[in-house]
Amino acid sequence: MDIKRKPEFNIMTDMLIVLLVTAVVAVYYYGMRAAAVIAVTVIVSTAADFVCLKLRKKAHDKKDLSALITGLTLGLMMSASVPYFEAAAAAVFAIVVARHAFGGSGCEIFNPAAVGFLFASLCFPENMLTYPRIFTDIPMSSVVPSDILTQSMAKTLLVTGTSPVSLIDVLTGRFTGPMGTGFVVLLAVAAAFLMLRRSISAITFFTELAVMGLYAFIRYGFDPMDVLYFFSGGMTLFGIIFLSCDYSVMPRTASSRFLYGLVMSICMIMFCQYSAMENAVVYAAIVSSPIGIELDRRALSFADMLKKHRKRKGKRKRLTKNKLLGSINETLEMLNNDDKRES
Length: 343
Prior knowledge:
With 343 residues, the protein is mainly α. The chain has a single domain (8-303), classed as Ammonium transporter fold (Orthogonal Bundle), CATH 1.10.3430. The chain has helices at 8-30, 32-55, 66-77, 84-96, 112-123, 125-128, 153-160, 167-172, 184-196, 202-219, 224-232, 236-244, 254-274, 280-342; strands at 131-132, 149-150. Strands 1-2 form a two-stranded antiparallel sheet. The longest helix has 63 residues, at 280-342. The N and C termini lie far apart (63 Å). 45% of the residues are buried. The model has no long low-confidence stretch (mean pLDDT 83).
């Protein structure tokens, strides 16, 4: 079944509202340094998109907010202490390589924000994967002193199998990690809002939520608190909403969206189980996106095959019916002729 999707401008507007609210909370926790990092990724993403459109001699669509959304998403995935140059490099890579190299907005194979974050994590792992504590006075300078930096809650959970963070702190995002990805309550409300507005796929979201929840429940000794740590840390819940359920790579059919959710979950489990990566959802989103597109293509091909089969079946039925009617008419004519001869 092909799902009718909202106009892209309306989807982008919904995404922008949710991301802006999340950015406000991030700035509240991490101060103006967080606002500066987000501003860098947004401005650089928008500028890079404008330059690429000029070089490709393409007109800028005023209703296309995708570069702005990419910049916001990327900024929220970063540490509040990341150097500005590294944030800018990630934004340029996301727009130039992950978007315009494949044809621009609407033609992406991968989520640009996920690609930009992966690029920066591989090039600058020390700065990208260390985080300041919340409500810390972070200097606005490009280089932040190392004594206020620490590892994320997700890394602690991976290393020790547990976390000292309280339930209230987990629900409100009061722990170290990427500055806009740990607010469980806010993200849950955002997911509900976006699903009700049909801006993300409820099928994919709940498929991933169920599979990953079951995996975390088994892996962490059937402890519900550790399951909550798992979803709040490592950008898991944030990534499910804004990376894997992104409208630009989301399949169009219901069956493909369900299968895509399964593929995404399996990839995430593989990265969690067999690697020490604390942000497995980012890697899983990049690996799964092309598979989701191919699943969609196969599902549509299968639907076309069914339509053709039904048409052929209908033609055969009509031919059989016509032959049957012809035989009946011929028999009736023969009987009428016999009656005339007898009379």
